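Exercise 7. Predict the structure of GNAT family N-acetyltransferase from Streptomyces virginiae.
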Amino acid sequence: MRVLRFAEADLPTELAREIAELEARAWPGSTPGHDPALHPRTMLLVGGVGTVVVALSLLYKPVPLAGRTYRAAGLSSVVTRTGLRGRGLGGRMVAQARAELAADPAVDLALFSCDRPLAAFYEAAGFEVLPGTVLVGGTPEDPLATDDPGFDKVVLAAFFSDDPDRDRAAFTGVRVPLHPGNTDRLW
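Solution. The predicted structure, encoded as tokens:
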């Protein structure tokens, strides 16, 4: 198996189709693709004949908080082919995505939310739960927060700046104005 990386706009048609099929099985009714304003990048684990085994997207945007603007990246649309789940392939891809973000000098932190039962999966890949933190997605005029009724979400992060303890403190127990727009309401 090999890892491939593309700007989402540059995904070959066959790979984009496979990703859309995997996402439709995982999240029926979802629309494939991300807002181009978030500079989406796709990471894929591909089997020997080009079959997509794991796919995930990395999204990027500045996030103002605590008197500064952080260069944030988020994980989105992490999906593993149904018949291959439980083998650690998704976890290895998430850990690799984290390592690549950590090595990127243009990224201060990774920040995203997930359903509470998935938190341990992401923690095993090196992310940490931020207790009491809420991501506020959508837009300022039409927000969607991870603590809205009916959600059971947690916020996870990894800090890559020169002062990760300061940044962890700034992002813990607060409402973070992520506002990625109406396409990727929460990433």
